[in-house]
Design goal:
Layout lengths: L3 H21 L19 H4 L11 E7 L3 H16 L2 E3 L8 E6 L4 H20 L4 E6 H6 L2 H5 L5 E3 L7 H9 L4 E3 L22 E5 L1 E2 L10 H4 L4 E2 L2 H13 L4 E5 L7 E3 L6 E3 H9 L6 E5 L8 H9 L6 E3 L7 H6 L6 H14 L4 E8 L6 H14 L3 E6 L7 H5 L6 H24 L5 E9 L6 E5 L5 E5 L9 E9 L3 E6 L2
Parallel strand pairs: 1-2, 1-3, 3-4, 4-5, 5-6, 7-10, 10-13, 14-15, 15-16, 19-21
Antiparallel strand pairs: 8-9, 11-12, 17-18, 17-20, 18-19, 20-21
Helix pairs in contact: 1-9, 10-11, 11-13, 14-16
Bound molecules: 5'-deoxyadenosine and iron/sulfur cluster.
5'-deoxyadenosine binds next to strand 15.
Length: 500
């Protein structure tokens, strides 16, 4: 039985949904948007020949997203705001009246990619004068007005907290003005906006639970581009998850830069909701709704969250816990506020409380002043932590960050790249070993759809977030659970057969 507080929460959530329904039922953008493949980083919009029917004379927007999952989630909020303003989505850049690019500043390479795309948009604009181009997200926030000076074709620059102002900014741009709104907010969470699911396999969805970051890791531009950390109203999060479940979704990922510091005070009762509480509320919606979350910060990930994860089968046994470096001196320079020993203690806690939990990581090679021995500490951490996978980067200095101001970017590029290669090579070996250890085991898998390679096979994930590919069986469809016994493994995928 769900505790009384939870019943109250779900009731409040359903009330919010009813309100949302009446507000958004007419939203034209709810139809026909196809999947943006995050791995494609925006390109898929270009390849896809999306057919859509709409009234003659209707205005269209086209949106490409780059960077982290939060950006993709923000694009869904933008799509909703534009839908309310009477814009139809299109995947065909040539028929768009408004081209938007949701940008990332995390590394220099991400910004270069965006600038290349802007060159392509310039050609479209030449072909179709009057087409507006808008830059959204972190690069907009970082470069502000400079964008308009550097990239003459850009009409609108909008930071991550100013998306509600888009209809007004578009109006100004239509009148021929260059429009900018890069105000950051301490309150904005877009809690009341029902995102249009651009990422619509219809089974898995992302829910943004907080915005911004207060951590000030010295290498990171996010606190400057996304502003102060703020948590979204718990009711609206649970409402969104309930609604997704009712629509047939079977997995939600709660998103934040640092989910463990989620904190929301109920203004009516004064009750403080922590991340562990929130996780429990979402898990209690339905046993068939899987819950994931990202990203955890080692300094804030305490045992309360682990115990809640262990208590509910539908909270997936997978934690993305970026270490960044395996060396305590480098971690101190990175301002990560934990050391190697603390990180090891957190992994040990995970293993103690959930022996079957997989852990993944983010790793930066060649941070300022990193020595070869310190790099070896990162390699030994990868080995010891036995990460199922990692996102691996070499350090890219970002203007305005603490590291850019305080430390020399003194590791030569070839050394950074060589260290990164060593990290990647080791992680691949460990991922393969991790996956090979699953051969012979049987996992509950949520079917997401056809496998990439064959429409004879389904793909889906197990609780540890591993992709499993297996031959289809009559009667089973995406959104259902099945049990798959693993017969083969590569470093990225498990292959198996249905056993139930
Ligand atoms: N250089 C390289 N990698 C970075 N990251 C963040 N900032 C930088 C940077 N300046 C990585 C971190 C973070 C992930 C999202 O991106 O590993 O966890
Ligand atoms: Fe950047 Fe650190 Fe915040 Fe992550 S926790 S967004 S790395 S400042």
């Amino acid at each position: 039985m769900a505790p009384a507080t939870n019943i109250y929460l779900i009731f409040a959530a359903l009330k919010t949904i009813q309100k949302k329904h009446s507000m958004y039922d007419q939203n034209p953008t709810l139809e026909g948007i196809k999947t943006i493949d995050e791995a494609q980083q925006g390109n898929v919009l270009f390849k896809d020949h999306w057919k859509t029917s709409h009234a003659p004379g209707a205005r269209h927007f086209y949106i490409e997203s780059y960077g982290c999952q939060m950006n993709f989630s923000d694009s869904e909020i933008v799509a909703s705001i534009l839908g309310e303003a009477g814009f139809y989505p299109t995947r065909n850049i040539e028929e768009s009246d408004l081209i938007l690019i949701n940008t990332c500043s995390i590394r220099e390479k991400a910004e270069e990619t965006v600038r290349k795309r802007l060159k392509v948009f310039e050609l479209v604009k030449k072909e179709r004068p009057g087409t507006m181009v808008g830059v959204l997200g972190c690069m907009a926030e970082r470069l502000k007005k400079k964008f308009l000076e550097e990239e003459k074709l850009v009409d609108i620059v909008v930071g991550p907290d100013a998306y509600r102002d888009l209809p007004n900014l578009i109006g100004g741009a239509e009148a021929g003005d260059k429009m900018v709104n890069v105000l950051l907010s301490r309150e904005e969470t877009y809690a009341d906006i029902n995102p249009v699911r651009l990422e619509s396999n219809g089974i898995t969805a992302f829910i943004s639970i907080m915005r911004g970051c207060d951590n000030m890791c010295s290498f990171c531009v996010v606190p400057f581009t996304r502003g102060r950390e703020r948590s979204r109203d718990t009711f609206s999060i649970v409402a969104e998850a309930v609604q997704l479940f009712e629509q047939g979704y079977r997995e939600v990922t709660l998103l934040g830069q640092n989910v463990d510091s989620y904190k929301w005070e109920n203004p009516e009762t004064g009750e403080l909701v922590t991340f562990a509480h929130l996780l429990e509320q979402v898990a209690l919606i339905h046993p068939d709704l899987r819950v994931r979350f990202s990203t955890s910060h080692p300094k804030d990930m305490l045992d309360d969250v682990l115990h809640i994860m262990a208590k509910y089968e539908n909270i997936c046994k997978y934690i993305h816990l970026p270490v960044q470096s395996g060396n305590s001196r480098v971690l101190e320079l990175m301002n990560r506020t934990y050391d190697r020993e603390w990180y090891i203690d957190r992994i040990e806690a995970i293993r103690r409380i959930m022996p079957d939990c997989a852990v993944s990581s983010d790793i930066i090679a060649g941070f300022c002043t990193e020595t070869e021995e310190e790099h070896q500490d990162t390699l030994s951490m990868i080995e010891w932590a036995n990460y199922s996978m990692s996102y691996m980067f070499y350090y890219s200095e970002r203007p305005g960050t603490l590291a850019a101001r305080k430390y020399p970017d003194d590791i030569p590029e070839d050394v950074k790249k060589r260290r990164l290669q060593e990290i990647i090579r080791l992680q691949n070996v460990i991922s393969l070993r991790h996956n090979q250890a699953e051969i012979g085991k049987t996992f509950k898998v949520l079917i997401e759809g056809d496998s990439r390679k064959s429409d004879q096979d389904f793909c889906g994930r197990n609780t540890q977030n591993k992709m499993v590919v297996f031959p289809k069986k009559a009667g089973l469809k995406p959104g259902e659970y099945t049990h798959v016994k693993i017969r083969e493994a590569s470093s990225a995928t498990l292959l198996g057969d249905i056993v139930d």
